[in-house]
Structure prediction request, 99 residues.
Amino acid sequence: MAGTLDDDAITTHLKELPDWSRAGDEIRRELTAPSFLAGIDLVVEVARAAEEADHHPDIDIRWRTVTFALSTHSAGGLTVKDFDLARRIDRIATEHAAQ
Prediction:
């Protein structure tokens, strides 16, 4: 099991992820898709990446707005796994924006 990160480590990781913010023991990013179906396509691709990583975000879909929240529940807080998946979500979001 991955160990939780302290506040300094979390702050350092968040500096590399400017679209993410901390909310307690999770990090969050909200994206606005050009259409509802584009948002669903984004979610599907993130779901595949999450399966590969064996680390699954909480996902909230509100029409074109998709919010991803990451926390390592089994560790009781934020771990490197959360930031690794956040980077992967950022890459996927960038690819979707270019389409």
